[in-house]
Amino acid sequence: LTWTDASGTVHNKSINSCLRLLCSMEGMAVTTVEKVGNRKAGFHPTQERLASCNGSQCGFCSVGQVMNMYGLLKDNPDGLTASEIENKFDGNLCRCTGYRPIMTAFKTFATSGDSKNSAALTHVASSGAGSGAGAGAGTDSPISEAAMKEHKDNCGHHEEATGMCSKTGVACTGDCARNHASLDIEDMFEPYNPAKHDPEVPDLSAMPKRSLVFRGTVSEAGTAPTWFRPTTLADLLTVQKSLLSLPAETVKLVVGNTAMGVSKYYQSTPYDYQVYVDVSQVAEFQTTTVDATTGITAGAAVTIDQLIQLCNQADPDSPTQTNSPTADNNATTATSTFAALGRHLCRVANTQVRGVASWTGNLMLAAHHTAFPSDVAVSLATVGATVSISSGGKVTTGVSILDLLSTCATDNIDTLVLSLSIPAGWGKAAPSSTTSYTAVDSFKVAQRHQNAHPIVNAGFCLTVDASAGTITTARAIFGGVGKVIFEATSLEAALTGKTWSDATLQAALTALTADITRVGDSTAFGQTPAYRRQLAAAFLYKFALRCQPSLPATLQSAAQRYVRPVSKGVEVYTPDPTTYPISQPIVKESALDQTSGEAVYTFDVKPPADGLYGVFAYTTQATGTLATLDTTDAAAAPGVVAVLDATDVVGKNDCGINPGEEQLFLPIGGTVGCIGQSLCLVVADTPAHATAAAKLVTSTYTAATGGAAPVVTIDQAVAAKSFFSSDPSDYGGYLASLSRGNASTAMPKAANTATGSITTLGQRHFYMETQNAIAFPIEGCKILRVESSSQSMDQTQFVIKNVTNLPANAINVGMRRAGGSFGGKISRSLHVAAGAGLAAFVLNRCVHVRLDRTADLDTVAGREALNCNYTVGFSDDGVITALEMTIYNDSGYIIDTSFGDIDMAQLWADNCYYIANYASTATVCKTNKPTTTSMRAPGVVQSVLCMETVIERVACELGMDAMAVRQANFYHLGNTTPYGQTIKYMSLPTIWSDIQTAANYKDTLASVQAFNKANRWRKRGISITPIKYGIGDTGYTQACMLRVYPSDGTVNITHGGMEVGQGINTKVAQVVAATLKCPLSLIRVTTSDTNRVSTSSITGGS
Fold this sequence. Notes:
The protein has 1102 residues and is an alpha+beta fold. The protein contains 32 helices and 38 strands.
């Protein structure tokens, strides 16, 4: 987004389009990924580099990555360092690729400071020769004939037929090969030239800043809001006066509208705003001043990003980036309050939000939702910032931040925040000699270091007499630990007039406890009051440490800030041209389609003009039976075409992966298994209408037999004996027991025994593309064409066949690619596809069913929770002589894929260890929760953790190094696993030895131990964990169709696998090219569908 402010300064920011209101875009230039680069016009360097560095798997997030990097380049024409680039990706999510290849790609744009991109590609020739990362880079040494040949064979830009380089347009010189051993990643690409590569952006300098009014119109959908955009304070006051008669809760003042992404989590119903007032263009609200002596002032529309820049201007010698290697760890010598404030603001939200969100909007969010522990409020209050407000025609200055939060706790049209004042406060290294100095710092603990709301945050600001060291004034602000953000007045009193000592600290901690008790503990979801209090006390302790002129060596690390270094890595691979093109390292065939936004996902498929959208309504109780279902209001809502329930199912009300287990819609009288079972599908002309109408569906329930409470944990299921049967007659059953030797008789004979338990909670799926499917009726519903974001075409076809009664050959299910899956679309995609298929069949119109993120998280439980109880017997030298494990997993209300997952847990639980007397039992628990489903190495992650915990327990009991215990229990050639497989190949000893040598494990361990001995609070660790992961052939159930075109020899392939980000299409193309002995460029893999491949299996484990 490009715009000019009142001063004429041009801003370029990447933003969240879903949060940006359309009317606010007037006078601005919008650049989308399609404009940045595309296949016809040419790709932009950001797109090319992300693709070339394998920074795209499923690709659903790739366009966001590209646009963020493009925005950074536009907004920083003087260049960026590698650390700045990494920090500015705090708002971009990637679920499958991992951030390292993405960062590797984009750090090639670094131009200054720590510009060296800490990554290199190293070819290890077949002779084994090679050198470290970056060896020889930057030299002009001649390239050997052999190295030149290897380069041309492997370079993606070299055109074999012509000898030309597709990147430079001239004959290949091998310059980018550098040498035969190594290639710096930056040198793979043509230098970025904005004049050449960037699309043209309109000149906005002549665009007038005009006041706007968009009057809301009345239609059958309701009354659209009215939009005001004043450009002066006088205009704003006029608008304000005209709105005073309206209910305050119907009027919203906006700058970036980013609060919309947060407020939904703090209120049960959305606001119904009838009037929006955009104050972002009010000239007076954009003004700023910076003075190192008097402080900073900023208008109400100044963004958080601009406020950070103002802090940097006020104190240019103190970097504010949270990972700055020069950030001072000592609060008394920290340069200023500006540095402390700027550093904390860098952890507010993310790049896309900070660039357009105002400090005022964040404060109003905290005022309206007291459970929101605003970092902006805490950090501003800490440094003693004040605001000016206008209320009732009167301007009041010097209003404290906490007073403002109290004043604006309820909506009040008559009150406007005008500006912010931040006083100057300098530490010991002040720019001029002073008799006192400021000690200031702030803290935050969150679930992630970046882009996460605080669990608890706090700030401390002291004025200290320079000669005596006496604290003359104290300010302490806390958020997240109490019911509201508060000033710890008792703590301040305990510090004022004192010097730092153990007694002072203890008195301060006691006072802090009293302050929290006075305010009341936070009732926010997620963490216990005890934990929050511990964090608050820890912040005070760390601040006290940072205030000391010196510290004992054992305490120094506790005062240090977290500094994340720039990521780095080396890729080492051994090319083998004899197996090309199968093993040839190439860019994924669709990578550029993904980075340019031209790749099409099911979510992107648009219905025709008369197309419809479906949204499910769900059960709201976890047990009992469905007594009534009232869809009257939903059916009468604007835009609604139909509401389908169990009575509308044409065929079988069955849409699960296990026949007869899961219903598409719960019928009246049906047994409720959990909150989140589908009751009906609301079908309307727009997603918004369908979503709004689905909320109007109501249902009632009769109590469960005996009034039993829902079973929601494994412990409750065990107590209630709520289990699924392992009998083979129940969907094949599962592996309930596995043994070798006799653990029960060997256990009493063991020299040592130990008993313990491990509890692992579940893990949510977070594929970027939520569950969705679109169904197109053809020729009066004689045929259905369905595109589903799924891991199984056959299963999808089967459930649609169930609910519609159409024959299989009349249902064509296909998918070009999925935006992530990880097992979550093996079975949980089926009811969505069945709903879309049924609705299209019944209504004879195209229907797209898409789960929003909340519905997806609520109904797709993800990885199972798993508990393991164990008893282990072992010798004095660490050999495990007997082991008994009892495993329980949480399946939810139906089986779904849990039987397969528990089997994997059982079969992998021994990991790499031969235990002569071994017994494990497994039980699948039935709980009143949405069903869990497979997720990457299902069951294995948990059971291997259990075994490794046993190993660590044995080591702990004996005082041994866990590495030695692991090695003492390794499998050997000829051993037999508990499931009867003889070990005929054993690479573990070699790998175990090699990795210790390569990682310099012995010396690193010694340094870790020395560090831990020397530091009381901060600890380091190092561990090597072996993994035995079985991979086998489960039978060839995949078909494919191959078509050769005689006019040019090109080839089309359709296979039965699903492209979910693993690059299966590229791998198939390589195999076909090798088999047909034709160039890879002649192969094209087309969309998988059941019309062309009628026999396939689930794509999983890939």
